[in-house]
Every structure is written in C-alpha cells, then in structure tokens.
Amino acid sequence: MSRLLAIVASRWTRLVLLTLILLSLQTTVLSDLRPFGVMVPLMLLFAVAVGAVHGSEIGAIAGLIVGVIYDCVLTSPLGLSSLVFAAAATGAGLLPYFVREPTWWSRVIAVAIFGALGEMLNPLAQGIVGYSGWLNPRVLTVAIVVAVLAGLTAPILVPLSRWTLREAVSR
Amino acid sequence: MAVLSVNRRRVIVLLALTSIILLTLDLEGSSSASSLRAAFGVVFRPIEGVTRVITRPLSNSWYGITRYDDVNMQNQLLREKIAQQEGAAVAAAASVRLAQELLALNGLPTLAGINSVTAQVIGDSPSNYSQSIEINQGSESGIRVGMPVLNAAGLVGRVTRVFTDRAVVMLITDPKYALSVKVVSTPKPVTATTIVNEPNATTVTVVPIPDTTVATTVPAATIPGFTPGATTVPARPVGVTTLTIPTSGALAVRETGILEGQGSSRAPMVRFISTDRHFGAIEVGAPIVSSGGSMSLAPPDIVIGVVSRVVPRLGTAGPMLEIKLVADLSNLSFLRILLYRPITELVAP
Fold first, then answer.
1. Does pLDDT of A109 surpass 90?
2. What is the CATH number of domain B117-186+252-349?
3. Quick one: which of B180, B183, B179, B143 has its CA closest to B163?
4. From the CB of residue B199, how many other CB atoms can be counted at a distance below 10 Å?
5. In a domain, A148, yes or no
6. Does B301 lie at the interface with A, CB-CB under 8 angstroms?
7. Do residues B94 and B108 touch, judged by C-beta distance below 8 A?
8. Which of B42, B222, B239, B294 is the most exposed place for a label (fewest CB within 10 A)?
9. Is residue A6 part of a domain?
10. Domain ranges of chain B
11. For residue A111, what are the domain limits?
12. Which of A26, A75, A82 minimises the CB distance to B19?
C-alpha cells in the first residue's frame, strides 16, 4: 500500500497528470489561437523547459513521456513526437555546459532556441519515416514564430516544470 | 561532463526503445497502436471536454479580436452572393435532378443514392504538421475508416480514425492524402455564325462548318412539306451573333490523375496526367472531380476544385496541375460523411 502511495505521490505521476492538462489546452484553446497561423506547441515547449531546468537526463525521460502522450491524439505515427521531444529536451538540458550558472532568462532563451529546433525536427522526422510532404520553406516560418512564442510562454513553463519535477523532501 | 546515473540511463533507453517499437508497430498498421489511442481517448476526452468549456470564452475573445473585420466583410459578401445564387440554385437543382434521373435510368451510381451522416467539427489539428480535424460522429453512426467527407461546397477529406462517438478526418491538403481524380477538359467550342433577319424574315442557322459560304437560297430537301426556296437569307444581314454548337467530337473529355495534398500553405497537386492528344491542353478553370471506381474510397463525381495552374513537364511525365479547392478548409463547421464503401470492400452477407 505504501508503495502504491509512493508511486501516486511521485513526481512522474505529477508529470503525467500535468501533461494531460497541458494536452487538453493544446487540443482546445491553443488549436484555436494561432498567431500568424502557427500553433503554440505547448507540449514540446514544456518538455524542453523540463530539460532546461532539470538537465538532459530528466529532460529526455520527460520528453519521451510527454511525447508519447501527445502522439496519442495525433495522426502522425505513434512514438515519433516522443523521440523528437526527447531529442529537443536533451539538447536544452545541455545548457549548463554553455552557461556556468544559468539564470531564468538564459533558460527562457534555451527554451526558445530548442523549442524552435524541436519544431523543425518534427517534419524532418516525419520525412525519415516516409511522410516527406512537410519539408518545405514554411518550416522556417513556423520555427521563427515558435521561437518568439516560446520566449513568451517560457517564463510560465520554467517554474511549472520546476514545480512538477521537484524532488520530494525526505523527512 | 556529469556522470549519467545508471538507472536513469536505463529508463531513457527503455523509453526510447518503447517509442521505436510503437513507431514500427504504427507504421506497419498494427491494431495495437489503434487500441492504445482508443484507450487513451477514453481517459482523455472528459479532461478535454472540461477544458474546452473553461477555455471557450478565451477562444471566442481571440476570434472576436482577430476576425471581427473579416467576419463583417464576409457577411456582406455572403449576402450579395446569396442574392445572386438564389435564382441560379433553383435552375441548378433542376439540372442536378435531371442528371440524377438520367444516371439512374442508365443504372449508373449517383451521389444522391449514397446515405450520409451529418457531423459537426469539434476540434482542429493539435499540431503544425498535421492537417486533420475531429468530428462528433463515430462508428455508432456507421462511419468507417476511408469514407469521404464533404461540406456544402465539395470534398474536404476522408475519415482516417474512428472511435465510438467521434472520428478524425484527414484534410485534402495533408501530404499523406491521395485520391484518384479526373480532370474534365472542355474542348474549344465550334463557333457558328447566326444571321438574324429583318423582323418579318425567317431565322436561318448556318451550318457550323468553317469557311462556309452562305448561299442565298437553301437547296432542295427531301423533307415532306418543305418547300424549297421558302426560307431565304436576306441580301443584307441586319445582325450577327455567335452561338456555340457542340458537335459529337466536342463533348467533355476526361483524364484521370492522382490528387495529392501539399500541406496547409500550398495548393494540392494532380499528377500522372497523360499527355494524350485527344485530351488536348488542360486549361485553367477545368473542373476536378473524383474518379470513383471499384478500388477508390470515394464515389465518382464529387466536386473537388478547379485547375488554378498548369505546370508543364518535359517528357512523358505529363503536366502537374495545381488545384484551387472549392471547399474552404479554414472555416469548417458542419460536414457530411458519405457512408460509401467501394464494392471491393463490401463483404457478402
């Protein structure tokens, strides 16, 4: 029983539950709100924010979990977003190797850059598995808009990811 | 470089392998991937429903801010268009009915004979790299994967995933979308000259042969009761008009090709059009309709769009046609799903 409670109270359970809420925002309000015709990839940005805050390892695990949940509502092959998110979050997790003591704004910049790269990686991954129709110049436009939108949403996503995956304090 | 913990590394490898296995299974068309999605849908739909209710005011505000002028302008244009089309619609409905009766008399399939289900769009694609929508009807309404989806204007897409009470529709602009279509080419019309006589004279239609010399007297005929010389062309014509006369060789010619989506930012293209001399050159504005057939997922003659650009190609590849869709995919609300299955997929009772 205590083991079950420990699982329920774990940060990974919290991650899954929060991901479901974010996914519901992604499929409802964010599908409607498309500035410049581009949707805010909230799921990807959240995975990248986890990477930027908690490092590559946690970022990769969170990216794989968030991605596979996102894949369940997409028409693209199951598991593809999972791998893309994991790669983007791992990249964002390399921030400490470039910035000695990352500040909140350096994390915001990391989320913006790796969010845009992750968004560009998505059509590339689709092309690798045979769906090549998305590789066109629009990808660059989407990436630029996503970078701006990521910069705007990252100040919320960074503390959210910190809270979601914080270690339980042992008593 | 920090040392990766062994446990976390194992978890990462395990999850990555799981993703790759899922990817492989889904690409192979395994039912386990569909089952996983269906099970996830059962858990996720209530959460999504609640979020939709909560966030609806926000969406409405966004549309109010960003689309107010557009909506006003569209409203005015639509009022004008409705006024123009009210008269034409009556005539068109009569023509369609006549055409359907003719097709039915000849034992040919018509769209009117196919049952359909009306559905409402409840969700957009949650990705920048997918052109799909979600509708509020599913397998319990008889919808199956592959069925064509239309709106009032024409073809919109096809059903790609079906759940009990909802379905996912892949739009015609998605790069994964492909459909056999036919291009209806209209050959250049034969123009004949009709000479309109003075008020009291009889109207005579000149036979539409190029460089015809108009005789002043019509030659003798074998028609009973016909008096040669009774109909004569006046010496000086008072008016000349042009009239299009279809000849047997000038009926609409059809050529088939494959329509493929090109993403949201580009128009769909039609490929594999043959460069047949009989078919002639394809002109901008030629209509594109579904070709149908025993293997096709869509019945014949669903209106798709018109040719907006012809891209010529060298050799035997044939031209590529850029299509302007008749359906406005950016503003979909109510859709009609044709409960059509090709004859090759129907199971005998």
1. yes
2. 2.40.10.340
3. B143
4. 6
5. yes
6. no
7. no
8. B222
9. no
10. 19-108, 117-186+252-349, 189-203+235-248
11. 11-164
12. A82
Interface contact A64-B16, CB threshold 8 A: yes
Residue with tokens 């055409």: B99
The predicted model gives B4-11 an average pLDDT of 78
Per the structure, the count of domains in chain A is: 1
pTM of the model: 0.68
CB contact under 8 A, A33 and B129: no
Looking at residue A146, its pLDDT comes to 94
Q: Is B11 on the interface with A (CB under 8 A)?
A: yes
Look at B16 and A83 and tell me if their CB atoms are within 8 Å.
yes
Is A130 within 8 Å of chain B by CB? yes
Q: The domain that contains A154 carries what CATH number?
A: 1.10.1760
**Which has more confidence, B223 or B138?**
B138
Note whether residue A169 is domain-resident.
no
For residue A4, being part of any structural domain is answered with: no
Can you tell me the mean pLDDT for B57-72? 85
Which stretch, A11-25, B59-73, B197-211, has highest mean pLDDT?
A11-25
pLDDT at A65: 94
Reported as a pLDDT band with limits 50, 70 and 90, residue B213 is very low
B176 touches chain A (CB under 8 A): yes
User: How is residue B318 written in tokens?
Assistant: 């044939």
How far is Cα B20 from Cα B26, in angstroms, rounded to an integer? 10
Helix (H, G, I), strand (E, B) or coil at A101: coil
How far does Cα B120 stand from its chain's mean position? 19
